[in-house]
Design goal:
27 strands, Immunoglobulin-like, 4 domains, 414 residues
Amino acid sequence: MSHSPRIRTVLSCTLLVAALGVGTTACGSDGHPLSAKPYDAAGQIAFNSPAGSKKADPDKPLEVTAQGEDGRITDVTATDALGRYVGGELAADGARWHSTAPLAADAHYTVRVSTEDEDGAPGRKVMTFDTDAPAKKKRLDVTFGPESGKYGVGQPVTAELSAKVKGKKARSLVERALKVETQPSTDGAWHWVDSKTLHYRPKEYWPAGTSIAVRSNLEGIKVGEKLWGGDAKPLKLTIGDRLEAVTDAGSHYMTVYRNGEEINSMPVTTGKPGYSTRNGVKVVLGKEYSVRMTSASIGSSDFYDKMVYYATRVTDSGEYVHAAPWSVGSQGYANTSHGCTGMSTDDAAWFFDTVRRGDIVKVVNSEGADMDPFGNGFGDWNVGWKQWRKGSELLAGAKEGPAAVDAARLRPQV
């Protein structure tokens, strides 16, 4: 069937107004197709949902088609009870709409269809249906981290999956469903650390004062064979001031900056030869007032067993910034530790009271190896942005910038 433009309808309205010499309210007079109450389009469309109380198969796409030659579909929106939109595609001639995103299992959907007849009069039809629960399924739950609270500008968002996810299609679906919304708006990307772990960060450190809300739209969505999306507790984070501590192992000093302004500089000692402190950006993982450190904990041949105080942890393997009163004579002059950054008790107490989880501790000019990106705390910032994006199934190979934003973000789809 042919669908001529509706220009003639608009022109006739304009001519009517001119002929009657009245205001624009003439366009709202009874009988005009553009102002008419939408008619029931039930007889104009067909819908492939099961009849009666039967439930739809979530593995099958949703389809709405126009019937007859006296009308066409102009818009279709399908949402579930959680407010998630189903992505879809409408044919250019308005004859057919079909879903392009998966339906959730065991969910209730509302479908709103808009049509127009050959005279341009609008039609509406609202339909509902339920999807069936899979007979056998394994749940893919998501645990976001860290726990809700206030953090420094270097804190990545993490997502731990309850089952392995492999394959580009499945990983893309999961990644698209893990939503990170920030205020102010900040572009970022997920990076697959392994088949069960993702990290999210922006290109640069988080802007000070950023609010971050994280949620999952995976519930009920089929991810793979017998694997369906499960629960995820939403997460909210706030970011504090930009606090960075830069340790220069060559000059034996640590300089601390808040929002770009220097607020302290302290003499330190770092790892001696054979135990050189790792270079690179680290993130504060936590603080402990007292920690027992022994040579056995790092496999050192040099025996030691000490209680240290004001200990700020920066790696999972036991690297701290802490009080080292026994090495005050070397602080500012030589590196004598087994890898930690040692300072006076007063300086360590100040540092302990000043930093929070997520703050940046950067080591430069050490003879040590580079900080690992993953597996020993948060070394995420040691990965360049281009390489980081390659760890995303959605952004790998895409051009950076607004054009690379996934169109699915325009609506809260899965």
